[in-house]
Amino acid sequence: MRLKVKKLNFSSGKPTVIIDDETASNLGVRPHERLFLSYKGREVVALVIVAWQIPRDLVLVSDEVVKSISVDEGEVVEVKPALTPKSIRYIRDYLRGAKLGYREIKTIVKDIVEDKISEVELTALVTAAYLRKLSIDEAYYFSLAMVETGERLELDRKPILDKHSIGGVPGDKTSLVAVPIIASLGYTIPKTSSRAITSPAGTADRAEVLMPVTLTLEEMKQVVLKTNGCLVWGGALSIAPADDKIIRVEYPLSIDPFLIPSIMAKKKAVGSTHVIIDIPTGRGAKVKTIGEAHDLAKEMMEVGSKLGMKVTCAITFGEQPIGYAAGPALEAREALLTLMSRGPRDLLDKATSIAGALLETVGIENGKQIALEAVRRGKALSKLKEIIEAQGGDPDVTPDDIKVGEHTYTLYAEQDAIVLWINNKLIANTARLAGAPKDKGAGILLHAKLGDKVKKGDPLLTVYSEYSTKIQAAEKFLEENPPIGLGVPGAEMLIELIHAPKLHERLPIIER
Amino acid sequence: MRLKVKKLNFSSGKPTVIIDDETASNLGVRPHERLFLSYKGREVVALVIVAWQIPRDLVLVSDEVVKSISVDEGEVVEVKPALTPKSIRYIRDYLRGAKLGYREIKTIVKDIVEDKISEVELTALVTAAYLRKLSIDEAYYFSLAMVETGERLELDRKPILDKHSIGGVPGDKTSLVAVPIIASLGYTIPKTSSRAITSPAGTADRAEVLMPVTLTLEEMKQVVLKTNGCLVWGGALSIAPADDKIIRVEYPLSIDPFLIPSIMAKKKAVGSTHVIIDIPTGRGAKVKTIGEAHDLAKEMMEVGSKLGMKVTCAITFGEQPIGYAAGPALEAREALLTLMSRGPRDLLDKATSIAGALLETVGIENGKQIALEAVRRGKALSKLKEIIEAQGGDPDVTPDDIKVGEHTYTLYAEQDAIVLWINNKLIANTARLAGAPKDKGAGILLHAKLGDKVKKGDPLLTVYSEYSTKIQAAEKFLEENPPIGLGVPGAEMLIELIHAPKLHERLPIIER
Fold it and tell me: What is the dihedral of CA B130, B136, B140, B142, to 10 degrees?
């Protein structure tokens, strides 16, 4: 069939055409099927969206189609149904219970990267992977295929160390402290991080307060060659690009079946040989129990081993924020203070424990002690400044230089009591309402943490925001959702009465 | 945030807006989330598509948005993130293993009908229902909710009989014969049917050769009140509208977890009290084994019973086409001939067995005999003519009046032998390449069936098409994919050698 081109003048992420219902019926295609378009010997396969009220001789095309076949408004293209890609058959097989092998998974991942798979098909894969659970082999093949379909950092060095947290605890700026420690001791650590999706800040957001983090792979390589380390945003690199597309459908469903391939592929793609995975665990974290943490650790270590990486997992305390700050600027400042030995004890302990354990995997004894020394002697701070300079930031930045939101709201204790609990999710929600992570200066500073004694009138936390409307929204939310629980230990044994059934929401690990 | 409206000038099925990536980030929404748009006190919630290269102050809106808030090109609307609908939470709960109750399922189905659920979310539901399998209760609640969210046929009569085939065998024009039989005996049978999606003809396609089938519910009611029966296209009525939307995502995935709710809802919505379900069974059908047919029958009967319907299931022979004709016009002609007692024996037997069994469920004895009499005495033919007239067709239509494609191609036997197998899927594919069901005159006429002796040079089948290009395509396909197997029984015991693993494709039941 010959159809006249009308340009949509936007890019939808993959070659897409919109045709009228009647035209679709005449062509014998249905929504989510594919059309083969040809124009002057150039060809493209596009996904079909069926709409109504479109002239029947028109095909509306996205920018990707225009680019692929260099066609202009009003030109006539030849259009016919396209064959179903093999990857779709493999996804259907997987739905029906088949085990996927390397060949099938590679084909699927390649087609995900090349945008040949529709969202319906990708969602079916993600949902099925969640319900069926990926086997160790499948997780390994997905990891490998993700690495192979993306860019890779090639460093002529060994060992290459790396660190990753599955996240879920606000204020977890451990990487900002641990990466300079490792690099300052002469080990290579090409650290990539994500931005926040549901939290007040990701490591990339925090680091961006101190330096540019949107680097190319070549720029990242130069920074690592010069300083042994880096703190860059993984999203700007094309390593494991399939993962970004998978996250796009995982997110609205609040599921994360591709967590392990995603993390492992990103570590493998930068050439890591020794990796430590932080699994914050606790009621307010993504992983609730030690048992769950062990299960996850086992799978990550097995998949890592198949990929030729030595993976160690660290179960860490996740029932409250790390340090006192949550939000990009507040956290960057706290990390800097910690490297100046003026930071909170829990952050220093966590960062040096993680760095120390990682050092021990390459044969260093007394890793934690050595990590602590690197902080105390200022070596780690100097290294962070080197990294900041190499990435294009100001190495002379001081904690006082870091601007935080000028609008503030402080919550005070209404009684003399002890802090019994801190709700991570409510802390995160409040910080986000205040503007984090988009507004770098927005966030929360805690004044008390678990077990602290407070007196009536003592400040519990301060919210920072760059805008008065946002501080009001955060204040309103705080009033209705107190994130800090005060009381006398053991005095209130009833946790909750259940009058109507309600499922407990599990937090997916989308920021990875 | 305030954005300027640009109209997309098409209807995408649900309120949809397209915004730039940067605008989405500023609003804090991600693809598949929802935006709340307000304009002069009018409000609408729309699904977000994120694109690139769009001016940041623009929001591109589909016709549904324009209609909802009566907004014009260039006007400014207020835009903010919308809350996640409850139905989405229930779908997420279901993914995580929750059992759904009536309240949750009703909310989900209502939101499906009102287009509040994105395709990603609907796909997750469909995939999860496929992998988890709906329980009898869940299937019942979905059926009930589908009925309640659509139109219903209200007839002040009892009993109301109905018949449905799960399909999968080409040429199955049983309804065209069985419906007039039932109606001619004074019983009410308000039959709705689907059009073909993957087969050469659905009952609606076949019936449309003889009469209009796109009736409103009120028109259908008048036909039934006048003649006791009807043969209308269900897709034009708004009964169980959720099902059409579910099928849209089932189809590209080749899965059909909502088969039972779909069928049962459509029967219940027209008020049926006694239903017979035909389950064609055999290697070339959708249901392969008698055991599988029993499992499906059990579930349908249990769900039917909860809905207050007496459901009977008929397992029928499905290893070859019914009668000799496949394709709308060829089949309509064969059905007409059968009602004139000049049709194929298998079709007459199947139609009278089904009609007879249905009659017996309302207390008639010797149902099959009575059904056969209704055909032999011409009562069923007269009734079909009444129905044709009531629906606006020509009651005087004769088999010779029915036009079939003028382009033909005949396949001949290359040896003296016996017909050992007929491949339903290849028959269907050939007929579709010839133009069926879109071209009513296209299709296949078999000249031999299972067990028939043929001599070298005898015709095996003739393909009919309205276009020479299509007959060529069908001919080419036939040469490469012989749909009829000849040989000597017992002489060739090896069925297949497997050199490379390959999953067997199961046909989903989408036409229902």
Answer: -20
